[in-house]
Amino acid sequence: MATTLIFRSMLSYMKLLEIPLGLIINLNVLKLSDSVSNTAFPD
What is residue 43's predicted lDDT score, i.e. its pLDDT? Predict the structure, then answer.
């Protein structure tokens, strides 16, 4: 799971750019599917 700082930064960018969905990918893992985190902007 993404750290709180990265998650909050993503929410800020989503709000500023009016993007409803966000995706965080951690490339520092062996299996990429274990590192994907997505979120929807809360209304």
Answer: 66
